[in-house]
Amino acid sequence: MMHDTDTGELERPDKLPLFRALPPGAAFPVDALPDPLAGAIRAISGKVECPEAIAAGSVLAVASLGVQGHADVQFPLDAVGVKPTSLFVLTVAESGSRKTSADRLAMAPVAAHEREMAMGYVALSHEHSCARAAWEAAKRKCLSDKKVDQGGMAARLKALGQEPAPPMMPILTVADPTLQGLERAFKTAPAALGLFSDEGGKMLGGWSMQSDNKASTLGGLNALWDGGPIKRMRAGEESASLHGRRLALHLMFQPVLAPRLLADREAIDTGLTARMLVSAPHVPFGHRFGREVTPADTAALGRFNDAIASLLSRPYETVGGDPRHLAPRKLSFAPDAAIAWKGYSRRCEARQGEGEVWERMRGWGSKAAEHAGRIAGVLAMLRSAETHQITAADLDAGIVLAEFYAGEMLRLQEAAALNPDLVAAEKVLAFLTRQSAIVFPMSLIYQSGPACVRDKATAERVLMLLAEHGLVRQMDGGAIIDGTPRKKVWRRL
User: Fold this and answer.
1) Helices (DSSP H) in 416-441: which residue ranges?
2) pTM of the predicted protein model
3) Residue 240: its pLDDT value, please?
């Protein structure tokens, strides 16, 4: 039983956001991109009336999904080496910005290819079932032969070969952000997948980002971006390393949730945020009154769909014929592109110096030139799926986009340039909104709340910060909660 002893009229101060509003950002440089990407971005932006940056996030992610299984980028510096053409894209936009509608249009060729895969999956599954039954019968017959010694038995089993592999699941994208979910997908699905979700908040609030699981999730995503294997070494389970996989990523977040990732110390320190291409465009609410779809829009989307469909239909180069172990060809830089990339890399390094513009985002700045090269690799493959080279024009466009995303990351990190108490306050507020009671003792916070406030002093400091923002209020005289008088009691407003 809970009693609120403060019977007076509650004073309700104006609620203030924990994080300051974002300053305006730059327009997405769509003119720097060649077709079919530029045409698709303009067409999607026009059809759903969303900012071009929202359309671009979806288009780039889908393009990366189509390219990543076919080609890696051979960078001109040994320190960078060979890296995937996989892109990790993060779009920050509030509800009603039509980001889901934009994403659905960009994902159309992916959905169509998944439908084609599904049509053949039933027949392939039947064939596998028959082959597996025949293999198991042959194995039982081999094992039941009492006349054969151990050596002969081993020879027969070796001649029988491995159990027939099941057909690949007819999926190209997954929405489960846990490392275990990705492991399961990469065992049974194509080796080049996309982790795409318009509910990115589920990743932050879900199992994968809980304190016990966050390190493995961040490490696994980083490894996939770098082209490394997924390694599984958990007690009670068979250890495994999944090599030759590729992952493109596109997550969409509400603005209120973005600081939780961009200011997350562990995500920053492990380098996940440095691997992200983030944008948070201004949405022109109140000025979207419908626009006629033009033949040019339809044609532009058709060209994009055809290009992605062609890439998805091309067979991958693999290791030893294993369809789940990719061996993408290496895209080298043309001589003038290599010189230009090295020059850009030096400029990126200089901007990370003390007092320089990227000093506060050195993690991202250290990967800016790599971002440019990866984008250039995607553009090169869309220009010609047979190419082995990144041209200076490809790189020029990649650098323009890298500069745009650098500006967005700098803008977002400055807006989320937070002291730890602000980050903790946002987590405590989320915790409190999940509680059924609006009146609570302070002990609830440091006994059951987020791990970052598990001591009395921190809990009190964070609650005072929430009170300054008009989100909670300390009750004069305390209250009786569950039959126990409590001195330090707070009320969620």
Assistant:
1) 420-433
2) 0.80
3) 65
